[in-house]
Amino acid sequence: MLADCRGFVFDLDGCVWQGDALNPGAAETLTALHRAGRGVAFLTNNSRARSQDVRTKLRRLGLEWAEHTLTPLEILGQVIAERFGPSRVLVIGAPELEAVVAAAGHQLVSVADFRKATVVAVGNDFDLSYERLGAAARAAAAGAPLVTPNVDTRLPIENGDFLPGCGAIVAAVSAAAGVAPIVVGKPEPPLFRIALERLGVAAAQAAMVGDSVESDVAGGRRVGMRTVLYAPAGAAPGAADVVVRSFAELARLAGVR
Q1: What does pLDDT average to in each consecutive run of 10 residues of the chain (257 residues)?
Q2: CA distance 115 to 34
């Protein structure tokens, strides 16, 4: 199923790493794929990280060859511009999210001026307050489209623990405003297609490897990729084309050592 795959796209949070620690066997398997000439790309829904941030972390963790990294921040400002033109954007999220929105030519709107917003962008916000949550919900309820990098409800960290994810905040805004979000990252197709373009492989020749059925498997299937679910505790049959309990098992199926 995987021995003839020319490219592999890996999710990061929960799959390649947990917080600041690589999962067991990840470094060995990823490096073996790279040395065997198989294309390797990394795709994360992290709403606080830019591609360079991800590359820096991968190299710090020992994957010095890592090159192809993608995050929703890479295209979020562009998506807003393409769909709504130059906009006045209320950003609820990290400074990195504000930076990419501004860099795309949009005007940032303060929380106090939320009624002036024509678009609301919500990411994971470690400084979230009721005031910020209320401003986002009221602006969206007044007609400003709600745009988000992802709707992942949990952010995996070390030792199997988690923090509330971007999707948890988006769900609150969406429920209060009575609107559905526009999702830029996984499982929507754009980032998967960009990853395939950078690897130079067709979807049918590539596998998406991740720990989320809703995000990684669903997104990979939408663009025609083979899907691999990383599930150390096991998973129900049919959850993905292939279910692996370890990176060592993935290496065997891919035909690398």
Answers
A1: 95 93 96 97 90 95 96 92 96 94 96 98 95 98 96 85 93 98 94 95 97 95 97 91 97 93
A2: 50
- For 72, the 3-state DSSP assignment is coil
Which of these, 150, 91, 82, 100, lies nearest to 119 by C-alpha position?
91
Per DSSP, what are the bridge partners of residue 69?
42
- Active site includes 4? no
d(CA 209, CA 219): 11
Of the candidates 68, 75, 64, 24, the residue with the CA atom closest to the CA atom of residue 42: 68
| List of domains in the chain | 7-72+186-254 (3.40.50.1000), 73-183 (3.40.50.1000)
> Residue 229: in which H helix or E strand, if any?
strand 226-230
Please state the pTM of the whole predicted model: 0.84
From the candidates 4, 13, 53, 216, which is the catalytic residue? 13
Is 13 noted as a catalytic residue in this protein?
yes
List 11, 152, 211, 216, catalytic entry: 11
